[in-house]
Amino acid sequence: MTANNEWAEAIRWIQAQMADYGLPMEELAAAGCFDPPPPPTPPPPVCYRDAAGQSWDGQGEMPDWLRRAVNAGQSVEFYRAG
C-alpha cells in the first residue's frame, strides 16, 4: 500500500470515528487536537566526555565506556566536561 493510500485510509477511519461519536471539528479544535506540539525539551548538559566524543549527562547508569575507564583505574573526574 502506498503512502497516499495509507493516508486516505486513515482519513476515512477518522471520519468514521467522528461520525460514530458525533464529534464535530469545532469540539476537536476546542479540545486542543489541532494545537501545535510543545517544543522539544533540550537535552541535559554533558557532564562527562572522552576523547572519542562519547558523552554522559551524569544521570542514570554509568555508560560502559566510562565504567571500563574507572575499572582500569582512571578517575571519573578526568572525563568531566567543561
Automatic annotation (TrEMBL):
GO MF annotation list: DNA binding
Keywords: DNA-binding
Domain DNA-binding protein H-NS-like C-terminal: 48-77
Pfam family, one: Histone_HNS
Keyword DNA-binding: yes
Protein name per the record: DNA-binding protein
Originating species: Cupriavidus necator
